[in-house]
Amino acid sequence: MDGSGEGRAEDVSSPLTKKHKTAISQRRHSNGRRLVGKAGEAQVLPLNVPNKHKRLAQDLFNTLVECRWRYTLIVFLLSHFVSWFLFALVWYAMALAHGDMEETVREVGELPCLINVMDFTSAFIFSMESQTTIGYGTAYPSRDCPQAVVVLCFQSVCGMIIEAFSVGIVFAKLTRPHLRSQTLLFGRRAVVAVRDGCLTLMFRVGDIRKSELVSARLWVVVRGVGDGEDPDTDQTELAVTFNGNAKNLSMAWPATVMHRIDDKSPLYRFDPRDVQRDPFELLVFLEGTNQATGQTTQARTSYSQTDILWGHKLYPMLRFNKKHDRYEADYNRFHETIEVDTPLCSAQDLNRVRRLSELSVLHPITESREETSVDIEA
User: Fold this and answer.
1) The CA-based dihedral angle spanning residues 330, 204, 43, 225, taken in that order and rounded to the nearest 10 degrees
2) Which CATH architecture has domain 69-175?
3) Mean pLDDT computed over every residue of the chain
């Protein structure tokens, strides 16, 4: 079910056709000039952003979600310990003001404000027990100290708010949509070969999970081939089909993404030397809804000139298992390619050669008829 046929090389009747014994000599270019890395990370670093830290602090929840786990855990620990420490100061000050620390003889029935809070250490333990609702029972506020009840209620509310933020951030980090993209695979190489009589750019995409993406959508843009004012960012979207001429993408099985290099394609004038020489980049975006969580996820990758093999096709990876009566996708073949007969010229030159070939067949017939008519008249 590979887009180029079952292990068959397409034959093109052209004097430019040549079997690739080896891949076209690839001059290594710097792979650093990418907008999107192979793993999907954006290769753009924002610099000189005004009020950057202030803006990040205003969106504190998303900032903590995007932080590394070690920084998030440090913030969690600090938020709890700082709150325990601050309320311990309040409890210690309240005990001092009420005279609980003084060794004086109390009247009959008179109770201290905080039972068994003798120093700052016991105040800190009482603060931690109250906020975490442990409640060992060794320290507690007495009925003779109503202000302690107010502070205890306030600390309980603050503790619940901190716990809610902590649980929410951990849950958001564990269910981030980009984690789902780790099971979406792109082929390491894109290939150019002849399919249905036309040069076609192809690459492969697959999903290793059984729960496929819902409403999956894939689009490809090419950067660095236009004549715009900023070639580094000017982009042109490529018309693509899937597994032949399908317009909609299904991730139930590995799909071959195809772009016909015709007269409407920005790659129409590109030959193998241009592919290896010009610093263009193919940006691929795959987006869909996670069937399990309903969240939208996106996976990205890119193909630079050194990632494109001219004269190759994708190795077929689907096979039918008669024993289990089902198709199987062999992901050991996911990144493999096969060398095939392919013209070493651009699609524009290939079409020109074909037109000349057609004219060269028709032209002698016309001449022979003219010569025959002239002989008869003579």
Assistant:
1) 160
2) Orthogonal Bundle (1.10)
3) 80
Domain layout of the chain by residue ranges: 69-175, 179-359
Distance CA 357, CA 361 (A): 6
Please state, in angstroms and rounded to a whole number, the distance separating the CA atoms of residues 3 and 187: 14
pLDDT digit string, tens, across residues 59-114: 888 888 888 899 989 999 999 999 999 999 999 998 888 877 766 545 545 678 88
Helix residue ranges, H only, 175-314:
177-180, 272-277
Name the residue type at position 298: Q
Which residues touch 56 (CB under 8 Å, ≥6 apart)? Answer: 63
Query: Residue 376 pLDDT more than 70?
Result: no
CB 339, CB 312: distance < 8 Å:
yes
222: DSSP letter: E
Buried residues in 230-243 as b, exposed as e (16+ CB within 10 A): eeeeebbebebbbb
Q: Please check whether residue 242 is in contact with residue 259, taking contact to mean a CB–CB distance below 8 angstroms.
A: no
Q: How is residue 339 annotated by DSSP?
A: E
Would the pLDDT of 219 be above 90?
Answer: yes
CA distance linking residue 94 with residue 148, whole number of Å: 8
- CA–chain centroid gap for 252, Å, is 19
Q: Which helix (H) or strand (E) holds 16?
A: none
Which token pair is 373? 């008519």
d(CA 125, CA 169): 27
The full DSSP string for 204-221 is: EEEE-SSSPPEEEEEEEE
Query: Is there a contact between 183 and 201 (Cβ–Cβ < 8 Å)?
Result: no
Backbone angles phi, psi at 83, to 5 degrees: -65, -40
Mean pLDDT calculated for residue range 285-303: 87
Contact at 8 Å (CB) between 289 and 181?
no
* Percentage of the chain exceeding pLDDT 70: 82
Gap between the Cα atoms of 352 and 356, Å rounded: 6
Q: What is the CATH number of domain 179-359?
A: 2.60.40.1400
DSSP 181: G
Cα-Cα-Cα-Cα dihedral sign, residues 60, 62, 68, 70: positive
In sequence order, the β-bridge partners of residue 195 are 198
